[in-house]
Amino acid sequence: MNRLRRLLSAACLAAAACLAVAATAQPSDPRAAPTRQITDAAGRVVTLPATVNRVADAWHANNSTVLMLGGASKLVATTVQARKQPWLQRLYPRIESLPAAFNAAGEVNVETLIGARPDVILMAYDGSLPKWFDTISPYPIAVVLMPNTSLEDLATTARLTGQVLGERESRVAADYVRYFEGNIHRVRQITDRLAPSERPKVLHTSSAGILTADGLDTLIDDWIHVAGGVNAAQVKGNGRPVSLEQIIAWNPDVIIVGSAPNQQSRAAILADPRWSGIKAVRTGKVYANPSGAYLWDRHGAESALQVLWAAKLLHPQDFADLDVRRETKLFYSRFFHYTLTDAELRSIMNATAP
Q1: Which residues span the domain enclosing 40?
Q2: Long-range pairs, 315-318, Cβ under 8 A, ≥24
Q3: Which are the contacts of 236, defined by CB distance < 8 A and separation ≥ 6?
Q4: Residue 285, SS3 per DSSP
Q5: Measured between alpha carbons, how far is residue 264 from residues 207, 259, 289, 352 in Å?
Q6: CA torsion sign, 137 to 35 to 44 to 70?
Q7: Which mean pLDDT values do the consecutive 10-residue runs of the chain (354 residues) have?
Q8: What is Dmax (Cα atoms) for the chain?
Q9: Are the C-beta atoms of residues 152 and 163 closer than 8 Å to each other?
Q10: Number of neighbours of residue 122 by Cβ within 10 angstroms
Q11: Across the strands, what pairs with 231?
Q12: Domains identified in the chain, total number
C-alpha cells in the first residue's frame, strides 16, 4: 500500500510538472506574446509585436519605401492614392487588391482598417497627429509616426520603417540610406561651391490651373538647394495657394511641374499666354518631374534619384559625367529588383504611365 501511494504521488508530481512546462511554452493569453519597443518621430515609445507580419501604411509615399525594403508582402491596408500609382501597380501588382483604409483627405475607414487586422500603422508626422488618430485610439493597434519635412527626415523614415518591418528590412534600409546620402554628398561636392548668382530660381508647382507652390521648410526646398538652385517660392510649406501675379513677381528661371498629369500641366503652362512673360516660360525651361513607384520629388524612395535628376537639370555642364538614366536603371535593379526596359525608363523620366 505504501509503495502504491508513493507511485501515485510521483505520477501526480510529474503530471503537474508537465502542465507547468506546457503552460509556460504555450501561453493562452495573446497579450503575453513577445513584444519590442521603438521610439517614433513624435518621441512616443511604441510597443510592437516582436515579429511584425501585418502593416497598414497610411502614408501614400511610404508604400514605395516598404516595397523597396522588401516588406510589401506584409502590407494589409493602404491608401486610395497609393493604389492608383501606375508604376507601383507595375512593380507590385498586389497593391490594387489591398483594402484602401485611408483616403486622400486623410480620413480613415475604421471598418476596413480593423478588418485588415494590422499589427501596426505607419504614418507621416509633421508636428501634428493625423486626423484619424483619436478615432482608432480605442483599438489595440500600434501607430508609428515618421518625419516628413526634409531630406534628413527621409533617411530617418527609411530606418524607422525598416525597424518596424524587421531585421532583414533594417539591413536594406541601412544600405539605402548609404546610397541616398552618398548621392547627396556627390551632388553637394559641386553645388556647395556655387556662388549665389549661379543658383537659378526654381518654382515647383502642380498645375497651370490650380496655382500652388511648394515653399520653404520642405523636402522639396531641400532638394532644390542641394541640386544648386534657390526656391523661388518664398512661402512656407507644401502646396501653398498662390496667385499668378505672385509667380510673375518671383519670375522663376526654372519651373518644375510635380504632380500628375505632369506632362499635360507642363504643356498647359507653356501654352497659356498669362505665363508667357515669366523667364522660365520664355526660355522653355519648364519641366515635368519624373515619377515612378511614387513621385520622385516627394517623400518616397526615389528621392535618392531626384537629387541627381535636379542637379543635372539645373547644372548640366557641371554634371556632364552624371548619367541619370543609367543611375535609374541601377536603382530599380538594386532596390526594386526590377529590370527596366528602355521604354519603361522613358515612361518614368517623362512621368507617364507604363
Answers
A1: 30-176
A2: 315/190, 315/191, 315/194, 315/227, 315/228, 318/190, 318/191, 318/228
A3: 215, 216, 217
A4: coil
A5: 8, 10, 12, 10
A6: negative
A7: 40 37 40 86 96 96 97 97 94 96 90 97 92 90 95 96 98 98 98 98 80 91 98 92 94 90 85 93 95 93 97 98 98 98 96 88
A8: 111
A9: no
A10: 26
A11: 202
A12: 2
> Does 146 share its domain with 203?
no
* Distant-in-sequence, close-in-space partners of 65: CB < 8 Å, separation ≥ 6: 157, 158, 161, 300, 301
- Return the residue matching grid coordinates 503552460: 23
For the chain, the first-to-last Cα distance in angstroms comes to 86
Determine the length of the chain.
354
Burial of 282 (0-12, 13-18, 19+ CB in 10 A): exposed
Residue 82 grid cell: 497609393
Please tell me the distance from the alpha carbon of residue 237 to that of residue 227, in angstroms, as a whole number. 19
Q: Is the same domain home to 286 and 329?
A: yes
Task: Evaluate whether residue 274 is within a structural domain.
Answer: yes
**How far from 282 is each of 30, 252, 311, CA to CA, in Å?**
66, 11, 21
| Three-state DSSP class for residue 318 | coil
Q: Are residues 51 and 123 in the same domain?
A: yes
Distance between CA atoms of residues 34 and 53, nearest Å: 13
d(CA 140, CA 94): 26
